[in-house]
Amino acid sequence: MAHIEMLGVISMKIILYISFCLISLISHSQNLIKNSSFESYNVCPVFTGQVRNVKFWDAYQTADYFNGCSERINCSVPYNSFGTQLAKTGKGYIGIYPYINSCPTCREYVYTTLIKELEKDTLYYAEMSVSLADYSTGAINSLGMFFSDSIPQSMIITKSMWKKNNLKIGDYKLYVQKLSHKIFNNTPQVCSSIYLSDALNWVTISGTFKAKGGEKSLIIGNFSDFMETDVINLKGSNKKLKIYYYIDDIYVSKFSDYNKLINNQKSFKDYLDTSISLSINESYVINNLNFEYNSYIIDTSSYKELDRLYDYLKINIDYKIKITGHTDSSGSIEYNIKLSENRAKSVSEYLISKGIKKDRISYSGKGSEHPISEFDDSRNRRVEFILYK
CA-to-CA distance for 384 and 25, rounded, in angstroms? Predict the structure, then answer.
């Protein structure tokens, strides 16, 4: 019975994910965050507490990394130790404890270095997607994004610090509490304004702020003091309140760049309006197109998006389409070219199976020859298309 209930939960999440996710064609090209959707890793996770395996990210305390590459149920996607949730993008996300009522210092933060420092008096836009884990017994309204000119020393407890302070095991909690106070005193530039109690969907926390200048780090977590953190109990009992959130899709850019992106970005739904046309001979990335790991088999979660592309081609019968596959730089040149070609071919065959004529479609694979990001391999693994007549 428990297994059937769990399948019901994941089915509902798949349906809602497809229904409510706006699928865009244009990537966040101005994003200042490396590996923003946590797809690139040094080692696929085999245990919880391995967020340091994520490229360009680190943690205070023991934050977790989840990825569909893992065969371990405790740290995989969509099933893991804290519940069931699909990734917002790709197959990876991270998770943190921002609050445990029985342990004021047992909160976690994740942090990264920005691609470049923020400019003084410039308006910036930032967002992240969060989802409350099924495991959680409560929710908070103070999850935030703090931009700093450095990583607070309290984020990093090294062996040298341990020896310097002559710490004993029993002193650990007091020491962490003392250091943590430096973090709690910071005010995040972007913070949630509602209780984040949705365990079914991904919720976006977003906002704008004016940079002081020189900010080069992003820290994510709960910056409210323990006594000032607003908490709601969701389980209706006196259980110990343990609150845990999944985090995915971090985006930071100048507000002017974000505005340009939004003004130019349309969903497939918009393109179904015959009064709106895609530009001829312009390349578009098919976002949220997922394949099985190291394979050219299209994941079933991608069908809805490909169906929208099919609908557009069905309406605009004069258009032909060229589909091009790309990979990251892992693997040999020959392997990457073949994999990218097969992925483009899979998209082509899907459109043909729906009814698009073969003579309207061509495809090719470029391997890792044309990367679009130096830091985020998940963006380099993509399929693009060009329309022509």
Answer: 9
